[in-house]
Design goal:
The chain is of the alpha+beta class. Helix content is 36%, strand content 20%. The strands form 6 sheets. Strands 14, 15, 16, 17, 18, 19 and 20 form a 7-stranded antiparallel β-sheet that branches. About 1% of the residues have low confidence. The structure holds 2-(butylsulfanyl)adenosine. The site of 2-(butylsulfanyl)adenosine has 15 residues, from strand 3, strand 8 and strand 13. The site of 2-(butylsulfanyl)adenosine (IVH) has 15 residues, from strand 3, strand 8 and strand 13.
Length: 692
Amino acid sequence: MPNSPQHRVAELRDLLQKHAHLYYVLDAPQVSDAHQWFQELQAIEDQHPELCTIDSPTQRILGKVLDGFTPVQHAVPMLSIRTETDITDEGALSFDTRIRKELQYNPLDPAIEYSCELKFDGLAVNLRYENGTLKQAATRGDGQVGEDVTQNIKTIHQIPLRLMGKAPAILEVRGEVYMRRDDFEKLNETQRQRIAQGMRHEKTFVNPRNAAAGALRQLDPAIAAQRPLSFYAYGTGEVSGWADLDVPTPPTHSQMLDALQAYGLPVNRLRKVVMGGQGLAGYHHEIEHLRSSLPFDIDGVVYKVNAYTLQNELGFVSREPRWAVAHKYAAQEEMTVVRDIEVQVGRTGKLTPVAKLEPVFVGGTTVSNATLHNEDEARRKDIRIGDTVIVRRAGDVIPEVVGVVFERRADPAPHAFDMVARLSGQCPICASPITREPHEADWRCTGGLYCPAQRKQALLHFASRRAMNVDGLGDKLVDQLIDASLIRKIPDLYRLTQEQLQELDRMGAKSAQNLVQAIAASRHTTFARFLFALGIRHVGETTAKDLARHFGSWSGLCQASRDDLLQVNDVGPIVADSLLNFLGQEHHLEIVNELKALGVYWPEMVPLSASLESNMARPLLGKILVLTGTLPHMSREEAQAKIEGLGGKVTGSVSRKTDYVVAGFDAGSKLEKAQALGVKVIDEAELLQLLS
Ligand code: IVH
């Protein structure tokens, strides 16, 4: 009857089933109003309980909390497969050789056809469909007897409660329940939040397989429904009644998988029919390349002789079929023990905790260190010295500690990781205090220029164009200078000799000479540049200029209180504290004094109110200079800054008022004009003399 509740219920179930398949299996949703249909169906079923069936979509997340799982005798035993551990092509070739031998094939017989599939890393289940309706789902158990997990399996939306089309009287579908990696991450995040909220009995899971196993054996279906599981079908158990259908029984395994897919079951697309051992090896390689980009874990691939006639001929040895094999990949996860947690100091002073591991072979290499990223991460994962942990190395990514195997934690438990306690508050390299600013994840060494671990970075910054501007002192040279111990601390830069430099790899006499000159030229700088060069955290170029303008001199800055600092343009509490921290360390003051003693010099910019000593400090006061051509060691801006720093003025054109024209290479009309007007012309070296 078209308008009867029976009719509408059937219609709604068909709609819901079709769209659930589109959404969950084909990943191609077509509608967004399935929820309304669901509510309508629920309402009709409430009014007419006799119309509710076990395969209704409303029956997915119902059920009561169980006391335990009921044993289920499997109609056809659930076997396991032999594992081929030789992860090279040989593993594939030897399987083909063995099959041919068993079948008494000679070299002239044709290549054998195989069905190749992924080996999913989850748990095997048997889904029993009777006349197309899901009646029971069971775990593998010991292969003979499993456990009834129907209630939990029904929460997996990918698994149809009713098969599409005309199904045989009995169809047992076998496949793997697994958890996608992104679902696993989300679940663990939720678990962490619960633990943080004080739900102490909750725990995080070490890997997706572990989480899937926990979810499948969850006695409370409401909790199981919150654990996002997925499913792929890969075979069958008991099948009967196919002869009553108008299609023949599939003659091969791959055709059976196609049939399962047509019934609405999820079957992975990365399956392939290949010929012979070479075909198997080719598939093994193909999947290996895709492995780390798959949304779920696999630990290998599975090869199955495709034709059922040949499978029957081959039969079984003990509890394993002769016609199938699992061909592994190098494990991406292994268990090992944390021997120690060390802290490494990076080039920017960042302190990174690193787990020192009992060496373990994983992902194709031996791993003995794994970064814990930062203190929060180490605490979040709760990794402690002596813990047994799972280490993962997938593809080319850096090895990481996935999680702790808490069952194996020593009793009494070791202390939780604490950066300050571990380091006694000091940088492990230079013993400067360590700090961590609010809202930042990293602890840092405050040693800056003084810290050997930060020396390369500090030297590179010190010499950079906008700082001391040592022309030609780049990355490679900095590495060489520090590695050869020619520079142990920044002031050593001004002690370098041409002879020492010439000793370095790929350093000719001329380059060494140029570098020595560039270093010498950098001695004369401005206070702002010098401040910036010191690499004080949060003191960038602009702040350095503001500070220089405000305080005028190093001693002025050193005497400044926190309040004085806060007066400066753009200086807030973070910058002020960083400055106080820097200036409060004796070794920083020593470095500055040493640099000054080595001739690093900048004109003190006298505050306007006190311009008395200015003639002493500003030898170019009132002088007008014009720059022309390319100077050998300084850019124009550079020269201009130096001149202005000493009170001079730089103009763009030459006149009788011009005191000096500084001429470099390729000087043009300005030089001619200077000569015509009788203005004094000097070169860079003479300018430097003036500046000193
Ligand atoms: S076939 C008779 N195919 O690996 C053959 N198993 O020991 C039965 N597995 O516990 C297994 N992916 O859960 C087969 N594509 C696949 C598989 C697969 C994963 C699991 C299965 C079983 C174990 C084999």
